């Protein structure tokens, strides 16, 4: 994951770099065209000025011709040639490439040329002038370097300015985010967001206030419902069970009546267990448990194994223990005890007589394995009221409760079937 600032800055830098790269040839052609236009204008002025000066001279034709010959010898890049009226031509502008005259440098250079007919003493002459235009490349290079310098200056300035502005602009958002991270629904208190002059952040805070108010209200209603259900449902269920127990002790019951009462008692016991488990799931979903306790997991595991020792003996199950000592975790001791008991009880229920169960505990994993013959359906494994065997004594919520307790503690529950063993492991 990347911060928002880097996600906006990087595309900006790439875009500016692309523009800079494409601007270099544009600079070259534009500057070259401007330079050639300026040289053409310069050459026109030189040709006109030369004709004007010669015409202004108070000299004979022979003296002027002698001056022109001298001009052609001493003035580089220009040439004045007498032509006849039959060879008059339009002015022409063109670019020529040739070696630099009067130099040993073999480099070929470009010249901007002008051929123009001028009149000296009413006689036509072809005036040719060539001006070097290689300065264009140097000019473009200098412009490019200056542009690149200012590009770096602008990008660096924008980057620094953007970072500083982002800290100021996004400060209300970060304050809101920090308060949301520290918000606990169990406290049922409203969050007081800081005032901000940014419209979007103020709208966000208002929406969050409404959302939190609604969630707190719903949470209170759900909590009241679970508490009321816990008291109101358990009481009649307990009364019914006591009445059935008394009825089962009546010596006047016929065998038929006793069987019916026994079936009712089993159904009522299962209903009571399902009710307790559903209430437990509701409380877990509503985050009604504290998870700040330091739990001695090895001690808790030993206590649970002692409780189930009678069950092991009834089915003649051999138990293998590999429990490290001094294992401590942060969480809720009550829920952790439920998780341990459900895993062991699930293993006992699905282990045939004379089977085997192994329990393992390390710093990173708690594992319960039991012997079996066929892999369980992983799609239904942790779903509520899913039946993985023909045993109807369970509520169908044991593994679902285990999964929810793991989510509450931020643990991970996994299942695998290896070497005829069902292995449930909790990664702490």
TrEMBL record:
Kindly list any coiled-coil regions of this protein.
237-264
Q: Where are the transmembrane segments?
A: 12-30, 140-161
Recorded hits in InterPro entries, A to Z, give: HATPase_C_sf, HATPase_dom, His_kinase_dom, HisK_dim/P_dom, HisK_dim/P_sf, TCS_sensor_his_kinase
Tell me the keywords, alphabetical order: Coiled coil, Kinase, Membrane, Phosphoprotein, Transferase, Transmembrane, Transmembrane helix
Q: Where in this chain does the record put each Histidine kinase domain? A: 228-428
Any Pfam family from its record, for instance, is HATPase_c
List, alphabetically, the GO terms of the cellular component aspect: plasma membrane
The top EC class is transferase
Q: Is the keyword Ligase in the record? A: no
EC code(s) of this entry: 2.7.13.3
MF (Gene Ontology): phosphorelay sensor kinase activity
Describe the reaction catalysed, as an equation: ATP + protein L-histidine = ADP + protein N-phospho-L-histidine
- Classification via PANTHER family: SENSOR HISTIDINE KINASE TRCS, SENSOR HISTIDINE KINASE YKOH
Protein name per its UniProtKB record: histidine kinase
